[in-house]
């Protein structure tokens, strides 16, 4: 058997932190971008208040029934060209790359940039502003009282504008215009050996002329730390395993974690008291930040710092707990073990219950210890009988004190243990199908993994 058939590929991300030296000229260059984003933040806020933007989605805006876009916009929606503009009728979804064609947005762009501006660069700056409003509204379920402030601490550039010259140890930053004769902004860099060794992950130009230049990437500049963070793709391989263990994550503190295999003689681990206490502190602090109008801005800022620190402590507590259990699982197992990780909704969506942090901790442990692992889609893990494979919603109605009772074979077990065993079975099928793991649970991963599982287990009845 070929060795490659015994490996699982995983497409992961690796951060590269570089110390950079910013001159006054560099600072002025970045200030121009921040000033543009500040003006954009005010405009987006006023449009949200006036219902000229109805909703901000992952990669689009929902705009009202009638709106006109300047030339250059394209859409699958019904449109007609009228005196140099595109006019839309009906509730319309405007993609992140079309935002610049709204007349009021285009006016601000023309104020800051020349006609030959680099569209992808400006798209990224625009969408970073919209992303902040989407995040705020998602957390608080309302608009902020005033426009979101674009501070001088850092900037995230989603467009591929950073390249490294490894010979001169300089960051080449693409200018805002398409003019090829206009030189890049050059910023000296240095880094610890650990990060310098990872630069090769960014990839290099294919021709001899470009072999000393890395491929262009997006990145985050911290003006406070004088640091540039680039993220490189990294393909890692893990040995295939004989045994898969599923982790089912629950909101209930009593049934917080269920493993498909016993650890210290137990399947179930209730949420520890210290984790419950810090979650209560996080909830109460968040309530003060978002609802107590008597709190002044300075006090609110102090509370937010405490809230962030509490979240960091919360993650550490959960990580310590997960690491301890998985270490015992690894050392006590006679054969190689892989971990199937439940992909239940995150804590931000469902409240501060720590589900998202369990997922992060489990993945971190597996990576650090070279253990195979999969994010497992959650549909039907509660409805499927782990013994006979029958899938039935009726089984959920027969839950008696958390007991799962199969309507076909009458198999009985704890409902969360049943789910954990299904997660383990699903992970094994993904491995046997040579499905590539990924560093993030993106839509493509969800769709492809679900197709494999549905094909194998016939989960969804046609």
Description:
Among the domains are: 3-15 and 162-237, no CATH class; 241-457, no CATH class. The chain contains eleven helices and 20 strands. It has helices at 24-49, 103-112, 119-140, 193-196, 273-291, 297-332, 347-350, 355-368, 394-397, 415-432, 443-457; strands at 7-20, 55-56, 60-63, 66-70, 79-82, 85-89, 92-95, 154-165, 170-173, 185-190, 217-222, 227-239, 243-249, 257-263, 266-269, 337-342, 373-376, 403-405, 412-414, 437-438. The chain has a six-stranded antiparallel beta barrel with strand order 1-10-9-8-11-12. It has a five-stranded mixed beta sheet with strand order 15-14-13-16-17. The chain has a three-stranded antiparallel beta sheet with strand order 2-3-7. Helix 1 (24-49) packs antiparallel against helix 2, helix 1 (24-49) crosses helix 3 and helix 5 (273-291) packs antiparallel against helix 6. It is globular and about 70 Å long. The two termini are 37 Å apart. Residues 74-90 and 346-351 have low confidence and may be disordered.
Number of strands: 20
The low-confidence runs, each spanning 5 or more residues with pLDDT under 50, are: 74-90, 346-351
Tell me the β content: 15-25%
Q: Could you describe the largest sheet, including whether it forms a barrel? A: 6 strands, antiparallel, barrel
* Structural class determined from secondary elements: alpha+beta
Helix content range: 25-40%
Radius of gyration: 26 Å
């Amino acid at each position: 058997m070929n060795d490659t058939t015994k490996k699982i590929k995983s497409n992961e991300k690796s951060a590269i932190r570089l110390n950079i030296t910013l001159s006054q000229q560099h600072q002025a260059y970045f200030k121009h971008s921040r000033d543009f984003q500040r003006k954009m933040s005010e405009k987006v806020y006023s449009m949200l208040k006036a219902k000229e933007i109805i909703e901000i989605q992952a990669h689009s805006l929902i705009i009202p029934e009638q709106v006109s876009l300047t030339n250059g916009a394209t859409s699958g929606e019904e449109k007609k060209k009228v005196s140099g503009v595109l006019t839309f009728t009906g509730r319309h979804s405007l993609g992140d790359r079309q935002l610049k064609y709204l007349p009021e947005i285009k006016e601000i762009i023309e104020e800051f940039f020349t006609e030959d501006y680099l569209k992808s660069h400006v798209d990224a700056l625009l969408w970073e502003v919209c992303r902040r409003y989407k995040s705020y509204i998602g957390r608080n379920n309302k608009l902020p009282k005033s426009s979101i402030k674009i501070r001088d601490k850092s900037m995230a550039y989603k467009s591929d504008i950073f390249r490294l010259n490894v010979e001169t140890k300089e960051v080449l930053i693409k200018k805002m215009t398409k003019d090829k004769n206009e030189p890049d902004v050059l910023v000296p860099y240095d880094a610890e050996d650990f990060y310098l060794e990872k630069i090769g992950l960014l990839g290099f130009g294919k021709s001899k002329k470009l072999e000393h230049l890395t491929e262009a990437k997006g990145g985050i500049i911290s003006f406070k730390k004088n640091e540039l963070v680039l993220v490189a793709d990294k393909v890692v391989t893990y040995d295939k395993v004989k045994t898969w263990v599923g982790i089912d994550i629950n909101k209930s503190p009593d049934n917080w974690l269920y493993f498909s295999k016993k650890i210290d003689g137990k399947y179930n681990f209730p949420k520890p008291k210290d984790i419950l206490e810090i979650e209560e502190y996080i909830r109460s602090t968040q309530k003060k930040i978002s609802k107590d109008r008597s709190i002044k801005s300075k006090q609110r800022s102090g509370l937010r710092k405490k809230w962030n620190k509490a979240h960091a402590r919360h993650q550490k507590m959960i990580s310590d707990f997960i690491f301890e259990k998985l270490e015992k699982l690894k050392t006590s197992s006679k054969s190689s073990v892989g971990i199937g990780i439940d992909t239940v909704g995150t804590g931000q969506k469902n409240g501060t219950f720590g589900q998202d942090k369990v997922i992060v901790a489990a993945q971190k442990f597996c990576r650090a210890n070279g253990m195979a692992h999969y994010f497992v889609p959650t549909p039907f893990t509660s409805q499927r009988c782990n013994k006979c494979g029958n899938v039935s919603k009726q089984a959920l109605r027969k839950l008696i004190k958390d007991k799962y009772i199969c309507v076909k074979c009458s198999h009985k077990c704890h409902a969360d243990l049943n789910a954990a065993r299904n997660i383990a079975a699903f992970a094994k099928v993904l491995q046997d199908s040579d499905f590539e793991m990924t560093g993030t649970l993106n839509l493509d991963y969800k769709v492809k993994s679900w197709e494999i599982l549905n094909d194998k287990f016939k989960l969804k009845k046609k």
